[in-house]
């Protein structure tokens, strides 16, 4: 019997983790895995780092310090096989002051015209790597940068007949979460962990459709699968 894959998560918030877990459970299929939430820590009410993208930034800075300047040197990889780093692409339109962070980077905002969505996501991935002291993604890390945010993946999974989803420019929609509450009464959902958990299995089963509609979902799936395939199940 193969040993479970040890997957660690760093994300903006707990609803994001629900969606990512639905995705990886579909990608892994029968392969067992165990999850660890490095940020936000569920038992600490988001802890001292806070939630949102500012919390991800602070976690990244701490990880780089633990690794003597590089995420790849962080001892967390002694205990986890894969680290998923999540940051919504709409962070590209932010500035550090919005998260009470002193700007010593000069790399935000970095948003580009959409379409194509990949241009902004690519720039933000570079920013995210800079936060952890890297210029390329470490061997056992996977970046997850949904455009414009994770709710686009949820909308594609749960409401394939939504006019924006069918139009083909979902990844350029500024606030896809607003569409979730505009669906017909009885099927609309709110952005809460409880609501997302209720729909986790549906999101899992619709993952192939999500990767068809959302290019960043497709990139995440490909990169996660590549990393996992390098890790022996024995």
Tell me about this structure.
The chain is α/β, with parallel strands linked by helices and 234 residues long. The chain is built from ten helices and four strands, in the order E-H-E-H-E-H-E-H-H-H-H-H-H-H. Helix 4 crosses helix 9 and helix 9 (207-213) crosses helix 10. The mean pLDDT is 94.
What's the number of helices? Answer: 10
User: What is the beta-strand fraction?
Assistant: 5-15%
The largest sheet is: 4 strands, parallel
On the 0 to 100 scale, the average pLDDT is: 94
Characteristics:
alpha/beta; globular; 9% strand; 234 residues
Brief characterization of the structure:
The protein has about 230 residues and is α/β, with parallel strands linked by helices.
Walk me through the topology.
Elements: E1 5-10, H1 14-28, E2 33-39, H2 52-66, E3 82-86, H3 117-131, E4 141-144, H4 151-158, H5 163-167, H6 177-180, H7 193-198, H8 200-205, H9 207-213, H10 215-229
Parallel strand pairs: 1-2, 1-3, 3-4
Helix pairs in contact: 4-9, 9-10
């Amino acid at each position: 019997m193969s040993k479970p894959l040890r997957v660690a998560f760093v994300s903006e918030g707990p609803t994001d983790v629900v969606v990512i877990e639905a995705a990886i459970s579909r990608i892994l299929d029968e392969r067992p895995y165990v999850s660890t939430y490095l940020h936000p820590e569920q038992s600490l009410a988001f802890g001292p780092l806070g939630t949102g993208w500012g919390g991800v930034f602070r976690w990244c800075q701490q990880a780089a310090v633990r690794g003597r300047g590089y995420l790849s040197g962080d001892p967390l990889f002694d205990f986890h096989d894969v680290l998923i780093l999540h940051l919504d692409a709409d962070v590209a339109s932010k500035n550090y002051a919005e998260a009470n962070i002193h700007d010593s980077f000069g790399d935000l905002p970095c948003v580009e015209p959409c379409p194509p969505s990949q241009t902004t996501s690519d720039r933000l991935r570079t920013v995210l790597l800079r936060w952890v002291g890297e210029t390329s993604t470490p061997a056992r890390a996977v970046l997850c940068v949904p455009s414009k945010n994770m709710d686009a993946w949820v909308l594609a999974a749960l409401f394939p007949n939504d006019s924006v989803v069918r139009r083909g420019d979902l990844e350029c929609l500024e606030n896809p979460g607003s569409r979730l509450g505009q669906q017909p009464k009885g099927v609309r959902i709110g952005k809460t962990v409880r609501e997302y958990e209720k729909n986790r299995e549906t999101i899992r089963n619709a993952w192939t459709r999500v990767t068809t509609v959302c290019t960043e979902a497709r990139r995440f799936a490909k990169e996660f699968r590549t990393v996992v395939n390098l890790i022996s199940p024995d």
